[in-house]
Design goal:
The complex is a heterodimer of chains A (about 140) and B (about 140). Chain A is of the alpha/beta class and about 140 residues long. Chain A is built from 5 helices and 6 strands, in the order E-H-H-E-E-E-E-H-H-E-H. Chain A has one domain: SCP2 sterol-binding domain (Nonspecific Lipid-transfer Protein, Chain A), CATH 3.30.1050.10. A 6-stranded mixed β-sheet of chain A has the order 1-4-3-2-5-6. With about 140 residues, chain B is an alpha/beta fold. Helix content of chain B is about 35%, strand content about 25%. Chain B has a 5-stranded mixed β-sheet with strand order 4-3-2-5-6. In chain B, strands 1-7 form a two-stranded parallel sheet. In chain B, strand 3 and strand 4 form a beta hairpin. Chain B is globular and about 40 Å long. The chains are: A alpha/beta (about 140), B alpha/beta (about 140). At the A-B interface, helix 1 and helix 3 of A face helix 4 and helix 5 of B.
């Protein structure tokens, strides 16, 4: 089944929602593996960008992704970071086979450093770690 | 119009000065080295209140950190073949040129819109994209309105 990426009513007015929807669509168009990855993703991920005064929720339903402006429902994962770091998270280097964040990568090290410094906050239960890793793979553009 | 007084934005003279600003931007030359994905157009949306009857596009023929040429065109049809197109109202471009709005942050806020082109590539070369657009801050500019 082809993944579908949809904006919830009102979400098209959010620049962040529109941009992430485009990013996910175009990423999936180019990558058959990521299509399979998104098919296995189930859960809610919230992203909060305080400097943009914007937040959004991505609802993954096994191949269908709906983006909402604001926090909708109870997220399994919440990422809170300024715009610059949200952008950089897409540039995290991943390992070739498992597509896990590569701790040797330049951007990955910067992002881990920012996490330690509290500039990036990721709230996720241990059960949500697979969703987080798949999300990292999905959003990676490198 | 001398450069000390500023070039009217947008205009052929401004667009030509933008090319010089891009090529004079050391950081763009470095960050843009891997860029082989074609030209980028910056389009100012029509705003009759400002005397802009049509969308005006500045096409930047950029390759590997060098701007090989620029063209000022009228209407969205004229940028249909341009690989990357960023559209914003006049006031937003003014903020970018005056250094008040980071273009990448502006895109994330929806203030600048990538209406054509591959966003993953744009993000992959985010520093190149930022330096390209912010080179406009080095062009002496006279604004409308």
């Amino acid at each position: 089944m082809e993944p579908s990426i949809v904006l919830a009513p009102g979400a098209s007015e959010s620049g962040l929602c529109s941009m992430l929807a485009t990013l996910i669509r175009q990423t999936l168009d180019e990558d058959a593996i990521k299509k399979k990855v998104v098919g296995r993703m189930i859960g809610r991920i919230a992203i909060v960008a305080p400097d943009l005064d914007q937040s959004l929720t991505l609802l993954f339903e096994g191949g269908r992704v709906e983006l909402y402006a604001g926090i909708v429902g109870i997220p399994d994962i919440t990422v809170r970071a300024n715009a610059e770091w949200i952008m950089k998270m897409s540039l995290i280097e991943t390992t070739p086979r498992l597509h896990l964040p590569d701790p040797r990568g330049k951007v990955a090290r910067e992002v881990f450093g920012a996490s330690r410094a509290g500039e990036i906050e990721v709230h996720a239960s241990p059960a949500s770690v697979p969703l987080l890793l798949r999300f990292t793979h999905l959003m990676s553009v490198v | 119009m001398s450069s000390e007084e500023g070039f009217d934005f947008p205009s052929d003279a401004w667009t030509e000065a933008f090319k010089d600003a891009v090529n004079g931007n050391e950081r763009y030359r470095e960050a843009g080295k891997p860029w082989i994905h074609g030209a980028v157009a910056m389009v100012v949306s029509a705003d009759p209140a400002l005397g802009l009857e049509h969308d005006m596009g500045m096409i930047l023929d950029v390759d590997q950190g060098v701007c090989r040429g620029t063209t000022l065109v009228k209407g969205m049809d004229a940028v249909a073949e341009t690989p990357f197109v960023i559209v914003a109202p006049y006031a937003r471009w003014r903020q970018v040129i005056e250094g008040e709005l980071d273009p990448i942050k502006g895109m994330m806020e929806g203030k600048l819109k990538l209406t054509q082109g591959n966003l993953p590539i744009m993000i992959r070369y985010v520093e190149s994209s930022r330096e390209l657009v912010t080179s406009a801050a080095h062009v002496p500019t006279r604004f409308r309105g």
